[in-house]
Write a structure and sequence with these properties.
This protein has one domain (24-175): NADH Oxidase. The chain is 43% helix and 15% strand. The chain has helices at residues 5-13, 28-38, 58-64, 70-78, 95-98, 105-109, 112-136, 149-157, 187-190; strands spanning 50-55, 81-88, 140-144, 162-171. Helix 2 (28-38) crosses helix 7. The radius of gyration is 18 Å and the shape is globular. Bound molecules: flavin mononucleotide.
């Protein structure tokens, strides 16, 4: 069964990256609903390395402010919510619970490089699930990699095993403030049929 055509529009075709926000709040209940969808997306060995910090208050935004690149400052400070999509470098400690039928923890404790690659790959996947889940719930997103990750990690995650991957602004986007849609690669440019 495929989705109703309007669902494709909402998730992909009409959905845009937003830089300006309407004055409409995002409730904590909506954030919990969002996470309940995000967590169901697949990750390798069910490792679920993403950790999400929802910045909603002026105090939380003020902590983030010095970490932002100048181009990302205004839209982030005015967004109803900014999510720090982080990952737990020690994500494998949860594997006895998340993947109980194998000794998956030892795959990662024996190779820090493999653990780091797995955490980054899968938390990036989970960030993508978050964008699509938000769109499904009628929210708009503005993902960002333009920030000082070392500073952010010091400000928010000092003394913990969490590290930042990317930021995502969340809210109801102002459709009047969108840039023109950029082109995408054609099937022939981006895909191979072997
Ligand atoms: C991982 C990621 C990082 C991004 N970083 C930034 C950023 O730092 N600043 C910014 O203005 N836009 C950023 N973008 C937004 C992209 O430029 C935008 O999603 C892309 O051009 C597609 O726009 P559209 O969804 O409106 O078609 C980022 C997007 C992604 C997915």
């Amino acid at each position: 069964m495929t989705l109703d055509p309007s669902a494709f529009d909402q998730l992909f075709i009409d959905a845009r990256t937003h830089n300006a926000w309407l004055d409409q709040p995002v409730s904590d209940d909506a954030l919990r609903q969002l996470y309940d969808l995000v967590r169901m997306g697949p990750t390798s060995a069910n490792c679920s390395p993403a950790r999400l910090v929802f910045l909603r208050t002026p105090e939380a935004k003020a902590k983030l402010k010095p970490c932002l690149s100048s181009g990302n400052l205004e839209k982030t400070m005015s967004a109803p919510v900014t999510v720090i999509v982080a990952y737990d470098k020690a994500f494998y400690e949860k594997l006895p619970e998340l993947f109980p039928h194998a000794d998956a923890r030892s795959w990662f404790t024996s190779s820090p490089a493999f653990a780091e690659q797995t955490a980054l790959r899968n938390s990036s996947m989970q960030a993508a699930y978050l964008i699509m889940a938000a769109r499904a719930l009628g929210l708009d997103c503005g993902p960002m990699s333009g920030f000082n990750a070392a500073l952010l990690d010091e400000v928010f995650f000092s003394g913990s095993t969490w590290a930042s991957n990317l930021l995502i602004n969340l809210g109801h986007g102002n459709p009047e403030k969108l840039y023109e849609r950029l082109p995408r690669l054609s099937f022939d440019d981006a895909c191979q049929l072997l």
